Amino acid sequence: MTQSPPPDLTGMIIADRYRVERLIGQGGMGSVWAARHLSLDQTVAIKFIHPKLLGSGQALRRFDNEAKAAARIRSRHAVAVFDHGVAANEQPYIVMEYLEGESLEARIRRLGPRPLSEVSDIVMQASRALAAAHGAGIIHRDLKPENIFLTVDRDRAGPGYVVKVVDFGIAKMVHDEAAGGAAATQAGSVLGTPHFMSPEALTGAEGVGVSADVWSLGACAFAAACGRTPFEGNAIGDIVLKVCSHPLPVPSELNPLLPPAFDAWFARACERDLRQRFKDVESMSRALTQLDQWAEVEKETSSFEIRPRQPSRLEIELAEYQPPSRGRFLAGLLGGVAVTIALLGYFFFQRTQAATEATREAAARAAAALEAQNRPAETQTSPRASPSSEHAGAADAGESDAAAEVRPPP
Questions:
Q1: Where are the beta strands (DSSP E) in 50-160?
Q2: What does the alpha-carbon distance between residue 116 and residue 113 come to, in Å, rounded to a whole number?
Q3: Are the C-beta atoms of 30 and 49 separated by less than 8 Å?
């Protein structure tokens, strides 16, 4: 959408102290001009609200909110606010420090994906501004590459710039809301840039807090490292659907120069489950600055941590893996048990066979003894016994006596 140009304010004197010199840029809310402090001869930036929004109470509140929020933050990485008020032409204004440089968005467009070392440095500096804001009870809610300004600092080694977080126009001031009992936005409204907003900020399902800025900073880091937004789309509904439900993109698949550890860091920064997301911007910045060490700790933690969610393929493989020494021990133990059972079975089989044979032998001897006892009675029924018969009877008696001495095996 084409923006209507702001009225020419060149040469205008603001609050008897500032002379407007030239237009720096403009946006949907208004325009920013370079001006000079008349007595200090210092260049400042003055932001004016667009004349078409003077009748919008919401726009005026957002403009005033930006001045108050930025003035609370004490950090060299947040744009400093010096003054604010209403000019003679009834336009509200904010006097800020003058920044020379370019936004992160412009740098990405101009140079493409940035090296991981530069991304890490930008995240570290931006996190300091956000940490100071969070400490003052302020949630930015509209962090995006356009609002991360890389201001020239010729005294700084390396990239030669210092990161400044700007545009706290829709910032949520937690302390003021708690005291006044008023919400910063109406139910169902979406404030911010959807491409870089967290799911809870887009849907309003949970209160927008520090975690929302963590997600946005992670999305900015993705854009700087990959040269595009995490979830692309033109229609707000399409973007909201992707942010809330589509799988997170894998940075190294878009930029092969990125290590897998950065994939894990981004997944943690933009985790949909707030309990699994980085708890604050300081911890996410430290993790990125010491990426290799953080990734190693995360790997060790994930191997032993019990999580109420579906385990990863790596965790399943680790759980199923048995060390070789333990496998040999179990195999030996099971083999010993099998041999013992076999020996016991053989022992009881032998005992059973021996008992059966002994019983058979005892039964045979008992039958023989009974037969021997019955033979003398048959001999005595004859009227005369021949010597041979007497000898046979004596022999039978001897067999009976011998049979009487037979005892079954115990």
A1: 81-86, 92-97, 101-103, 138-139, 148-152
A2: 9
A3: yes
Alpha-carbon distance 253 to 75, whole Å?
A: 36
**What is the tens place of the pLDDT at every residue in 29-86?**
889 999 999 999 999 999 999 888 999 998 898 898 888 888 889 999 999 999 999 9
Fold for 100-289, please state it: Transferase(Phosphotransferase); domain 1 (1.10.510)
Strands 13-14 and 81-86: unpaired
- Using a 10 angstrom Cβ sphere, with 0-12 exposed, 13-18 middle and 19 or more buried, the burial of residue 186 is exposed
Which SS3 state, helix, strand or coil, does residue 215 take? helix
Can you say how many angstroms the Cα of residue 339 is from the centroid of all Cα atoms in its chain? 50
Q: Quick one: 284 exposed, middle or buried, by C-beta within 10 A (0-12, 13-18, 19+)?
A: buried
Of the candidates 62, 160, 155, 46, the residue with the CA atom closest to the CA atom of residue 102: 160
Alpha-carbon distance values, 220 to 196, 305, 309 (Å): 7, 30, 28
196 within 8 A of 165, measured Cβ to Cβ? no
Locate the domains of the chain by residue range: 1-98, 100-289, 333-404
- Considering 142, 167, 213, 396, which one is annotated as catalytic? 142
The alpha helices in 171-290, defined as continuous H runs, are 174-180, 199-203, 210-226, 236-245, 251-254, 260-269, 281-289
Fill in the amino acid letter for 152: V
Single-letter amino acid code for the residue at 318: L
**What CA–CA distance (Å, rounded) separates 281 from 210?**
8
Instruction: Respond yes or no: is residue 176 known to be catalytic.
Output: no
Q: How confident is the model at residue 147 (pLDDT cuts 50, 70, 90)?
A: very high
Lowest mean pLDDT among 50-64, 274-288, 383-397: 383-397
Rounded Cα distance between 291 and 312, Å, is: 21
* Alpha-carbon gap, residue 171 to 109, rounded angstroms: 26
CATH of domain 1-98: 3.30.200.20
Q: How many angstroms separate the CA atoms of 199 and 204, rounded?
A: 8
